[in-house]
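Service request form, structural biology core

Requester: graduate student, group of Dr. S.
Request type: structure prediction, single chain
Budget code: on file
Notes: please return the result as structure tokens.

Sequence provided:
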Amino acid sequence: MRNNGRIAAPPSLARDNALFLDIDGTLADLVDDPAAVRIDDQLVSLLPALSARLGGALALVTGRSIRDVDRLLPGPKLPVAGQHGSERRSAGGAIHLHSPSTTALARLRELLSGLAARHPALRLDDKGLTIALHYRRAPALASYLHRTLRRSLADADGFVMQSGKMLVEVRPDARDKGSAIRDFMNEPPFAGRLPVFVGDDRTDEHGFAFVTAQGGLSIKVGPGRTCARFRLRDVAAVRRWLAADLPAQGAGPRRTDVPPRARSTSR
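Core staff response, request fulfilled:
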């Protein structure tokens, strides 16, 4: 169910949570050029500290590539689902790749590269297994890009179009942020915990839906229709929410309205 009205702020994190975080628009403000995003030292320090408090059960779930995430967040390599789950690094460091037809991907790459060449205001973001066109500097092209991609994807078996904030992207159809979170939840140290996912975009709705179905906390950042159960106003509110519970040594308040099967029996 989508909700465009007022949604309550989330409760505090608990030690038996498994925390999943989007990056752009969630941990860092959106900018015209995603390559220009920089993560400040405070956040670089905050995430490993949160991970330690949660027993390592913290992962980043993003449209960025794993390589790009490691560039943004130097230091300890956190678990990451990159490119909407098309690539995933587990807590143990294992890399999982999900790539459909390379022929179809090559055709889509040629198409999107050609569009970017003809319209210099577009920014091509080729991440390897997914490819995006950012049109923040050319919003009038939005409808044209969506129509063009929909027609092209009719002959590109294994790929779908993913819309986002001022971007359109092609990704493998078997992978999304919900499937990535599901995969993490089947592995230690995430298994048996209550999932929490924080994101801001339409690309995060699959993750919200999965987490909500598990009785977890789905948290939308910013305005807009969503199936998430909770909302935080902006990136600054996300950071305050993440940092607020960190100094506490005891477990945060536990929810009483989730099914018993969703609760963790371990710490």
